[in-house]
Amino acid sequence: MNNSNKPIKQHLQDFLDFCEVEKGLRKNTQENYKNYLIKFFSWLDISKNSSILPHQLTSEHIWAYRLYLSRTPSPATGKLLGKGTQNYYLIALRALLGYFVAKDIQCTPPDKIALAKADRGLKSIKFLTLDQIAKLLSSIDPKDDISIRDRAILESFFSTGLRIAELVALNLEQFENLKNRKDLELGIIGKGGKPRTVYFSERALEYIKKYLEIRNAAKSMHSKALFINFRPSATLSAGDKSEKADPRLTPRSIERIVKKYALLSGIPVFTTPHTLRHSYATDLMNQGVDLRSIQEFLGHSNIATTQIYTHVTNKRLRDIHHQFHSDPDKK
Question: Residue 203 catalytic?
Answer without folding.
Answer: no
